[in-house]
């Protein structure tokens, strides 16, 4: 299944393209080719569907990022809004706690997709390119807990006499996605049968259903009733895939699901098999499941279907893990098999027949060539899969009054964990004025039991900048982490600009890297700063029009608030510096939602200050909310000059559980140079009693006496996406270019 991903200016834009990380084109030999912007705007592209899972956080990727981090994340994955690599070009992703995956030309060319997740708080992005036509674009991330799981459920052969019982099971399980393995509405799959039988029962899950057709759907010409019901009458595409094909794929968590239509040609030379092989090759997830109607192996009335052998062979060759089928009205689990049907516990494909969705069960049996392990033909029920990044837990859930169950677990073939380590740096961008110094914390994380010494070095610092690491070697505990400090000392002679400093960790010949983007500025002039440790003269409710009934802004030491609903920390009890912050009700309260922002708007105004030349405003913030929030809730920062207030930045809510985390934002105040202004911080709970917490700290306005470097690229404009993430719009894809020098040697540079 595919969705369209748009790249366009304005509030509906969803795409951010990665752009140049280094502002000094060609100035850093040994760092790989520079990234230079293609003039063309990113086109409308297809997106491989990634089903949302509970408890995940998500955000956007900054331009030029070679490392993406989310503090406190257990695992993190990236969204590529486009990937078009040529020849042997590649992009390697490496998790901060180990694990890596290299994307090549075969991986979803011309399509948007989420990658597999990587353990740790950060993912490093390392391109290796030779062809100037290669492009990629990274625009978003998702993160989860380290042990996060997602539940998917379904069955085949549904309506039926007992689908009004099995639908209760789906309701009770409450999966994020529902699958059907064909023969959804008897007897002929007409639109009337779907509306009268399926819709009142399983139809309640239609919005999250990913169906497969069966032979009874084709009792109506072209399965028109099936496609009309799921896609909409006369629509060519929709949740059931393209009309006339009915095969498609979708993702959830770290699993790739493939839907095969066994009622149209699926021979080795068919268009469907060609699609299947290409789809499996393009997939980046470590775990793969497939479902279809006709079973390759079955001990039921219909028995084995040898015509499904090409499908099984393709799945086995791609190291798929799970195949779910229907058609025979019973439950059966087989041992993992190879392409020849022989048991292969290490690399085989485990298959099921789950034709127990509600149509009358078959009493007759047959002999199967497959290695059957469990068989039952007297119990209606559904399959429940609890899926992780490395495997699955399966349960057969029976209808009320029946006692038969089945349970089995399995590991994903492409998710094996070997001893490894990762390197990450936080923050990944540091701005230092001439004559000053800055630092970043380098984390060395272990996975798979790794516990060896990792030597750390730093490279890429420009003339006049000294980069050092202390300690220079870190030995992380097995499956834990250790840290070192990267110190960056900038002399008065250093040239202004942005430089990627690469931290390299080496152990037993294996290297992992992280990048810290160092921006050298002129001698800084701070015109206003406040860490909220003392009263600097902020005024709460300055206009006298605030409407909040609780959770009004106050300066002080915030208490940590943990949601009893999601078990997530919302208001943070720690601050980026010192002990105080500006918070929407600093006290924790004694119950869910107590002392959070309620009833409307709260605001606070800074004292007046004069904006210096080339000024920028930076601040730390935390926005956390419950799944009863919406885009009506917000945290905003505005500037007031001459009686006019202009919004500079905002973060809005969304219908999702988002945990608290300190983040930083920077916006330009250059347009207000020389003017006397005040800052206005405002927050609103306008979604009708939603849980919404907001905090601000370390507000700083800094100007520079130096002009920006000649190759300075001004920041992109910003808008607010409906989901509440701050989105940079109309940025180009990364394009790689090589330019021949006059000596014939290859060098990197913009074209």
Which percent bin holds the helix content?
under 10%
Kindly state the mean pLDDT as a whole number?
84
Secondary-structure content class: mainly beta
User: Which value, in Å, is the CA radius of gyration?
Assistant: 28 Å
Q: Give the N-terminus to C-terminus distance in angstroms.
A: 37 Å
Residue stretches low in confidence (pLDDT < 50, at least 5 long) are 1-44, 705-751
Number of strands: 52
Q: How would a crystallographer describe the biggest sheet?
A: 9 strands, mixed
Oligomer: single chain
What is the helix tally?
5
Strand content: 35-45%
Blueprint (SSEs and pairs):
Blueprint: E1 2-5, E2 35-37, E3 45-48, E4 50-51, E5 57-60, E6 67-69, E7 75-84, E8 90-95, E9 100-103, E10 111-114, E11 118-119, E12 122-128, E13 135-144, E14 150-155, H1 163-173, E15 177-181, H2 191-198, E16 209-212, H3 224-231, E17 248-252, E18 255-259, H4 271-282, E19 287-291, H5 309-317, E20 322-325, E21 331-334, E22 350-354, E23 372-376, E24 381-387, E25 391-398, E26 406-411, E27 420-426, E28 429-433, E29 437-447, E30 454-459, E31 465-470, E32 473-474, E33 481-490, E34 497-507, E35 510-521, E36 524-530, E37 539-540, E38 553-556, E39 581-584, E40 601-605, E41 609-610, E42 616-625, E43 634-641, E44 644-652, E45 663-668, E46 676-684, E47 692-704, E48 718-720, E49 726-728, E50 734-736, E51 738-740, E52 746-748
Parallel strand pairs: 3-10, 4-17, 14-15, 15-16, 18-19, 19-20, 20-22, 28-35
Antiparallel strand pairs: 1-3, 2-50, 5-13, 6-12, 7-10, 7-11, 7-13, 8-9, 8-12, 13-50, 14-24, 17-18, 21-22, 21-23, 24-25, 25-26, 27-29, 29-33, 30-32, 30-34, 31-33, 34-35, 36-47, 37-40, 38-39, 39-47, 40-46, 41-46, 42-45, 42-47, 43-44, 43-46, 48-49, 51-52
Helix pairs in contact: 2-3, 4-5
């Amino acid at each position: 299944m595919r969705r369209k991903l748009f790249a366009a200016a304005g509030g509906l834009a969803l795409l951010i393209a990665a752009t140049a990380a280094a502002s000094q084109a060609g100035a850093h030999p040994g760092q790989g080719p520079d990234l230079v912007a293609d003039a063309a705007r990113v086109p409308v592209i297809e997106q491989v569907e990634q089903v949302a899972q509970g408890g995940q956080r998500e955000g956007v990727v900054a331009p030029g990022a070679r490392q993406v981090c989310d503090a406190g994340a257990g695992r993190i994955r990236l969204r590529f809004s486009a990937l078009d690599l040529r020849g042997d070009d590649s992009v390697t992703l490496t998790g901060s706690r180990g694990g890596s995956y290299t994307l090549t030309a075969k991986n979803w060319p011309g399509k948007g997709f989420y990658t597999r997740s990587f353990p740790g708080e950060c993912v490093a992005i390392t391109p290796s390119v030779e062809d100037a036509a290669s492009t990629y674009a990274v625009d978003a991330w998702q993160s989860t807990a380290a042990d996060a799981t997602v539940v998917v459920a379904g069955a085949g052969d549904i309506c039926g006499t007992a689908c009004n019982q099995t639908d209760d099971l789906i309701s009770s399980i409450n999966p994020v996605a529902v699958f059907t393995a064909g023969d959804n509405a008897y007897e002929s799959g007409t639109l009337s049968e779907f509306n009268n039988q399926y819709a009142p029962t399983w139809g309640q899950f239609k919005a999250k259903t990913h169906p497969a057709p069966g032979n009874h759907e084709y009792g109506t010409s072209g399965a028109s009733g099936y496609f009309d019901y799921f896609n909409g009458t006369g629509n060519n595409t929709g949740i059931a895939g393209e009309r006339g094909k009915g095969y498609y794929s979708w993702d959830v968590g770290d699993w790739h699901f493939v839907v095969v239509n066994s009622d149209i040609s699926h021979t080795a030379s068919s268009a469907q098999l060609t699609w299947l092989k290409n789809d499996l090759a393009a997939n980046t997830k470590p775990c793969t499941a497939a479902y279809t109607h006709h079973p390759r192996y079955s001990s039921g009335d219909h028995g084995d279907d040898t015509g499904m052998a090409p499908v099984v062979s393709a799945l086995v060759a791609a190291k798929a893990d799970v195949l779910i089928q229907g058609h025979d009205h019973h439950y059966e689990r087989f041992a993992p098999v190879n392409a020849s049907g022989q048991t292969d516990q290490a690399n085989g494909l485990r298959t099921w027949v789950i034709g127990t969705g509600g149509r009358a069960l078959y009493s007759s049996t047959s002999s199967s060539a497959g290695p059957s392990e469990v068989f039952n033909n007297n119990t209606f029920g559904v399959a429940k899969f609890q899926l992780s990044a490395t495997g699955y837990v399966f349960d057969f859930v029976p209808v009320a009054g029946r006692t038969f169950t089945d349970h089995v677990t399995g590991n994903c073939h492409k998710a094996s964990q070997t001893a490894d380590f990762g390197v990450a740096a936080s923050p990944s961008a540091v701005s230092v004025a001439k004559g000053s110094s800055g630092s970043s914390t380098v984390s060395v994380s272990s996975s798979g039991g790794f516990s060896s010494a990792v030597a750390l070095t730093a490279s890429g610092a420009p003339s006049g900048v000294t980069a050092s690491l202390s300690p220079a070697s870190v030995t992380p505990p097995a499956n834990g982490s250790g840290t070192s400090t990267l110190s960056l000392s900038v002399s008065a002679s250093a040239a202004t600009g942005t430089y990627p400093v690469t931290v390299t960790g080496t152990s037993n010949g294996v290297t992992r890297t992280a990048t810290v983007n160092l921006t050298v500025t002129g001698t800084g002039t701070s015109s206003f700063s406040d860490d909220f440790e003392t009263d600097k003269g902020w005024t709460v409710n300055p206009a006298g029009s605030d409407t909040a009934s609780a959770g009004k802004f106050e300066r002080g030491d915030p208490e940590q608030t943990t949601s009893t609903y999601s078990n997530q920390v919302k208001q943070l009890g720690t601050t980026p510096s010192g002990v105080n912050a500006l918070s929407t009700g600093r006290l924790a309260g004694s119950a869910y939602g107590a002392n959070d922002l309620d009833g409307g708007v709260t605001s606070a105004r800074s004292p007046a200050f004069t904006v210096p030349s080339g000024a920028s405003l930076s601040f730390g913030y935390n926005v956390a909310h419950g799944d009863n929030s919406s885009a009506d809730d917000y945290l905003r920062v505005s500037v007031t000059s001459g009686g006019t207030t202009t919004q500079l930045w905002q973060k809005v809510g969304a219908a999702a559980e988002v945990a608290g985390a300190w983040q930083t934002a920077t916006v330009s105040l250059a347009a207000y140079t020389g003017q006397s202004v005040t800052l206005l911080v405002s927050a609103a709970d306008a979604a009708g009693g939603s849980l919404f917490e907001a905090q601000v700290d370390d507000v700083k306005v800094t100007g520079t006496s130096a002009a920006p470097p000649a190759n300075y690229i001004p920041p992109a404009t910003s808008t607010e996406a409906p989901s509440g993430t701050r989105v940079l719009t109309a940025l180009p894809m990364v394009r790689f270019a090589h330019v021949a020098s006059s000596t014939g040697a290859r060098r990197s540079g913009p074209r």
